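ok so heres the complex, two chains, lmk if somethin looks off
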Amino acid sequence: MPRQDIQSYVSLHMLIENQFFFAKYGLAGADLERYLAAALSAGGEFADLYFEYLTSTSVSLDESMVKSAAQGISAGCGVRVVSGERTGYAYTDDLAPEKILHAARTAALIASGPARTPVVNLKENHFHDLYPTGADFDGQVAKKVELVQRADRAARTYDPHVQEVRAGFSDELRRVLIVSSDGTFAEDVQPLSRLSVFLIARNDKNSARGTAGGGGRHGIEVFFTEKTPEHFATEAARQAIIQLDARECPAGEMEVVLGPGWPGILLHEAIGHGLEADFNRKKTSAFSGLLGRQVASEKCTVVDNGTMAARRGSLNVDDEGNATNNTVLIERGILKNYMADKLSARLMGLPNTGNGRRESYEHIPMPRMTNTYMLAGEDAPEDIIRSVKRGVYAVNFGGGQVDITNGKFVFSASEAYLIEDGKVTSPLKNATLIGNGPDVLTRVSMVGNDLQLDEGVGTCGKDGQSVPVGVGIPTLKIDRLTVGGTGSAG
Amino acid sequence: MATPTTTQPDLKEIATGVVARARELGATAAECVAREGSEFSTVVRLGAVETLKEAGSKALGVRVFFGQRAASTSTSDLSPDGVEQMVRGACELAKITSEDPFSGIPEPAQLGQVAGDLDLYYDDVYSLSGPDRIDYARRCEKAALDADPRISNSEGGTFDAAAGRKVLANSHGFVGDYERSYCSVSAVPIAQDEQGKMQRDYWYSVSRTLKKLDPPEEVGREAARRTLRRLGARKVKTARVPIIFDQQTARALLGTLAEAVNGDSIYRNASFLSNKLGTKIAGENVTVIDDGAMPGGFGSSPFDGEGVPTRRTVVVERGELKSYLLNTYTAKKLKLATTGNAARGMAGTPGIGTGNFYLEPGTRTPQEIIGDVKDGLYVTEFLGFGVNLVTADFSRGASGLWIENGELTYPVEEITVAGNLRAMLGAISEIGNDLEWRGSVACPTLRIDGMTVAGE
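and the predicted structre for the whole thing:
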């Protein structure tokens, strides 16, 4: 997909009318220039300002009671100065001009040279329009209560063995203004909402947990039409009830089939992090220097796509003010692109893919994933299962982790089954998959025609920063992967 | 005279003002928490400064009760308007929550603080000049890079410092505050073998005072040693063998136990240790303590997130489960008394956190414990999150070193270690004498028998 931003050059004073930060904090265009000038007062090639105003609410239900409701407001400004490979960063949660100037002068100290003058003709960029920006979150508390109560009822109705139920609804509206010395001027309003259900089922012998949830960059109405509380509650209850009869997972190397959707965290962990440009610039990734080389079977094409409407991992602009993109990472098995931010793109001479993200104004941006998924192949999912003599079919996962330097990754299946003679049989508990990032996709021998993205629950952590992401895969067959369990060797 | 924009009332005044305002608006009880802090961090990579970060911040949170209904709000805007909006917001929000018969702040008699100085704050963490801070990080990384020619790359050396103050006030008249400081130095070297395969590891030192921070060179050399010993790692065959967990991984295991005795999980029957008080959950050799009042501890504070004094709690005594970790709410649910373990961020209701949580050390050295093992695994790192507290199933990715005839031999990776926590607690057959504090949870070297190592 081509980039969709259209740039128009207008005077800064025209831009700022009716805009949030200017109205709320009395900022004027001249202030932004003054802050950037202070940031570059000791030299430095580049500086940016990231203004953020975040409002969040959450409602949670436990033991069929709405036990807590919370709201929060957090606002601040982060100032970054880049000089060569060096980054200076300072932030303030007080948006008074002298506090921002102080932060700018503090960040400026990373450089040591004559002052530079920032570009003054800040240009406004028109970016994607992927989500509603006028969502009214504050006035809808009663609806949020209704959602968690409906989830609770649906879970308890599903099966009498469902005992503990917790349901939560949370949403946030993040307003950002990003201005930089290279002329970037971007504003965005980013909604994010999520409904989640956690429950425990019990019979006379066993206990098991089930979790489900989803959401995205949209308002609350979607939870009354598509992503209903009954949908998530039923899914969580189904998982837990099945797990009550799960048996021990065999341990050892075997064939593994991954179900579609959320098991795409395999891509995220096994190869996604390894393709973030910062690790490759520093040559600390197991994927360093592999551009143009075969890193996956020919059946695999993997993209990182921040431009999908209303998705949890999507953004109109990344946190450095660039439009997000649909970037092909792996095309028919060949490594095509790394995911880059401004710093990596400049230092490595790579295209900036619009992957510069940060958790908040307190954090330095770095290359991060958005929605990372594998394109659909040609195999019918039934044929994939049928081709396995003895293996594991993993359809839901808790979480995963990777060591990007040696490429080893791990993830834990919360719902998995044994495959015997081409048929899905017993549910398995405690299955953990472990492998090597650069190898695992070379062992993909079948790719389903059933691509799904996850329902909108993923949060990725890197260097202590959390950002929302999406993942997805079609049903995949991996010829050999180590399965960790407590049962005897498979 | 300070200029008007920089004059701000003290956090204690703001916090008590918030509580009073909530009462004016009809709240039957209220609790306010406030925090201010500053941080500095630097990363030096391959000898050059990569990032420098410096900032200060403040935040405020309030929890209000209208009878048995509760709600909470938080803000980073401490202006009079911002504070008023926060308090009004909480009072408004409390209208939609349920009557919960167990809700409420602690009773007046439960409130208080540990007397005396807990030795938590040293202003020396900020005493270094800008260049000297960078030099700490540089020296640490350099020691790692100089240790061996196979170490030619690095994720960097770091030096961090932080200090903060926390204030709590409630409508029973409790007002308390404390300051804590922190500094750390670390290195993350990368080593490469003849085949070009890379390995990374790290080491760090952390302290409340610069005086007790390990010398950066020592930290860098240890990081190098840990990284080099991973070179040439291979998989092993799936097997059931004795496993020895080093301090780092034993600490992670003990952290799992801390979660399993967390009152929130207990009253919901979401932990395998629910309803197990007074029963044997581990061998005679296992005693676990939580001490939130330990001088200088990384998990110490004079009072908890609800204004209850912290204390020493025996959690497991010679294998018997003696106490859960509780806050006011979970204690009421379980008809027990709070253990002073309320943990409170700015937003939401208080959760539960550890004070300083540790397993009492044994008498033998790690070397002696390894020396007993004919064929087994020494685990030095976990990867992934495969712990299920409901079922007690445990299965995590791991790396480490293989033990043959009592000696550490070749490095091992891409394996998992799995078992069931109930059985694992009962199968701790050796406990090292090497208890060391690097955070609020600490555990000596442990040997556990009967777990499955999954590999080829």
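quick notes: The first strand of chain A starts at residue 6 and ends at 8. thats all i got rn
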